[in-house]
Input
Amino acid sequence: MQLSSAFCKKVKNLVNEDSFHYECDDSAPLSLPYSIRIFMRNRPAIKLGFALHNQYTLVIPIHEKARAVVSGNNIELQPGKGLLVLPRQIHGYTNISEKNVLWLFCGFLHKSDTFELMRNNCIDINQSILNDLLALVTDYQNLSRLRQRIPQTDLSPARLTGSSLQLSLRLRLQVILEQLLQIHITEIEQSNKQGQTANKPRTNQTSAGELLTNRASLFMFEHMNEHLELTSVAEAMHVSPGHLRNEFKRYTGCNYTEYLNCLRVNRARHYLDTTDMSLETICHQCGYGSIYSFSRAFKRSTGVPPGQYRDNRKEIL
Output
């Protein structure tokens, strides 16, 4: 369906990087999402990079279509569709056209595994979900403003308002997820009645190749500051370099060197966003041999050198 202009405008007002991260109370009795983080990206899809983490990520295209590569599955995403990336799934994005994509991302944690059924499936967004998404982004922005104004020790009425907004945020996201799940289940039932198998849910079991790629990725995360040759990682995984190279291509959509650089750039962005570490220290921690190679790789991925990226972030915050 066509996304409304009000929703598009609201999303465009989000910070175009990792924005406000609201730590919800994960000890609450209700089984609801927590540690919710909402942000948007407006850049070529190929520059969104690859990632592997422990959270769920709901991806909502706003403008332009692109291709998501999730654990080796190529999934075409376009406005009016949504994709839920599950924890521990290697995922990234590739361009279909040269245009920038404007996409909304919602990362969160959840104690329930109910949403496993949506693995690797693109799901239609109806008007009800769109309305809830608009309200979700509005609540999130209001919480962000409260967080900036209220000291952590303050127990004023505004603080209590923040608590109610927090619960509203969690409830809205839960409702959105349940609606997406119901739409997907309905699609499966209709396909089964028609004797079709193309849209049936893919197996939830992790293949040996995906498991190998995940293990190798974790090894690379833990040894990021080292000189990570393909041969050394393959030796640590007890497989041949050729086999590991093929599995990386199959499950990430890019070659080993490209994937390693995505990991290093993402690590560098994290340090630039959250620490005052010098560029030299970040360069070393991310495994680059020189400031020149670090700056060149970072600019090729993000469009700006690391120093300018940090300055831009300071202006936003």
